[in-house]
Specification:
mainly alpha; two-stranded antiparallel sheet; Fumarate Reductase Cytochrome B subunit
Length: 211
């Protein structure tokens, strides 16, 4: 019988699972817009509103709200792991200033990938929120908020691409943990409640069996 997952581990798995699903939806819809960029109907734009499973409008809805969901879950993830994040950040920063590092090569790579996910995720989220509130659909040179719409579009696109690459590397590095915890999360272990007859009142004893 495998060791039962702790409440914190189960919570982390659930948050990571929702974050993964929302990231997949946002990434797939983002790839659609990367290959079929915005344009005008007819004329020299034969790729206008190309249907790949869904039409452009549906992909836009999927991209918008899966992105909103990913941002919300990511914020929750950061809040829950805030102590670990600040502790690790201080440790790495002090080691860089001192010119010495106790982190292994794997640890350094992991920290670098996490930093890349955080930075690109922040840029993708900020630019995504910009597009959520800016519905003008104008690519003029006018600066609406720090940059014009075209610049925000470039930031959102390529920060998103780098975030996907970093996320894939992060997922690959933690593949063993993911598969191990997932198997245990969906294991066939179950609790069976057996009644014990008493003259006063029934008492129930829990025993664990494994199929």
């Amino acid at each position: 019988m495998g060791k039962e997952l702790s409440k914190q581990t189960r919570q982390n798995w659930q948050i990571n699972a929702f974050l993964f699903l929302s990231a997949i939806m946002a990434s797939l819809s983002g790839v659609y817009f990367l290959y079929f960029p915005e344009g005008f109907m007819g004329g020299r734009n034969p790729l206008y509103n190309v249907t790949v499973i869904f039409n452009r409008t549906t992909w836009d809805v999927i991209h918008t709200w899966s992105g909103v969901g990913m941002i919300a879950i990511a914020i929750l993830h950061i809040i829950i792991h805030w102590k670990w994040i600040t502790s690790m950040s201080k440790k790495v920063w002090h080691e860089l200033l001192a010119g010495t590092s106790k982190l292994s090569k794997f640890g350094k790579i992991n920290v670098a990938i996490n930093f890349m996910i955080g930075l690109t995720g922040l840029l993708t989220a900020i630019s995504g929120v910009y597009f959520l509130f800016d519905t003008s659909n104008s690519h003029s040179a006018q600066t609406l908020f720090l940059f014009n719409r075209t610049t925000w579009d470039m930031i959102h696109t390529w920060a998103g691409v780098l975030m996907i690459i970093a996320f894939i590397l992060h997922f690959a590095i933690h593949w063993k943990w993911v598969t191990k915890v997932t198997r245990r999360y969906f294991s066939n272990e179950k609790r069976v409640v057996k009644p014990i007859i008493s003259r006063e009142q029934p008492v129930f004893v829990q025993t664990e069996t494994q199929q």
